[in-house]
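Journal club side-thread
Mid-discussion, someone asked how the predicted structure for our own chain would compare to the paper's figures. Pasting it here so we can look after the session.
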Amino acid sequence: MIRLTYILVDAWMDSYPREPASVTLDIDDTCDVVHGHQQLSLFNAHYDERCFLPIHVYDTEKSRPVAVVLRPGKTPGGVEVRAHLRRLIRHIRTRWHNTRITFRGDGHYARPEAMTWCENNGIDYIFGLSGTKPLAKKADEIADDIRTRRAIENLPVLRGYTETRHKAQSWDRERRTVARIEATKLGLDIRFVVTSLNVGSAEWIYDSLYCARGQAENLIKLHKTQLASDRTSCRSAHANQVRLVLHTAAYWLMLTVRDAIPKVRELATAEFATLRLRLLKIAARVVETTSHIRLAFAAACPEADLIRCLPGALLPLGP
């Protein structure tokens, strides 16, 4: 099961023709509602459901899945987050020794254990951060200015940014914290992020870098709606993890087909013979991807007859 999970990471690295200079990985968890007594299922008060909270990691710039890990239906703690990051980075570093890696996630992942580990191992991060009174006090001056200017100019909304150095009680050092301050007729809204990055303005850190993580949420929805990856109905947690691996293998096939399909403009100008050739290339690429996944699975677990377990998207294809 562990070897199969690492095959997904290898498939992601294989999608790059050479070692990239930098990558940004989005890490997030999603609610996977269960209806029985599956192992690891817990009641989560936030979702008001009995569920799993599997962790998904995506390379959103390329819309590629990196890893999917089944886990209990509770918010991950600092030690758990650090363990997931450590295992993933350890595997990536076996092939990519010089790539600059940045993790991006919401407030669940702004854990002191995870941030300290990243800093000690040369990994960058940008995580959402829950607002506290000491932290909000540091943004009071800028917040009052934005709120006052909005009221004087009678604007529907006015947004501003600021940054500070902050050290929470559980942190071992001060860290760069960026605040997005938005004043509307309904009141004031302040959002914080914490990052190891020392470059870029506060506005760029929040708007251009952190907010881009919304694409990962779209990819998770795609994973669940189009591939039914929340069909984790086995009682065994091991079996459900293998289900997630197989659904993600089908995800790779879907992405392969999507990337190979000609654009509308190309279809409009293509002659029939050219179009036929392109369609044959698409079919060949899908068959090649299918064969690669099957061979990788067979090499990882030669004792398991996984071909019988593959999703329907994989069965009609390949030799």
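Post-session note: Residues 128-160+171-195 form one domain.
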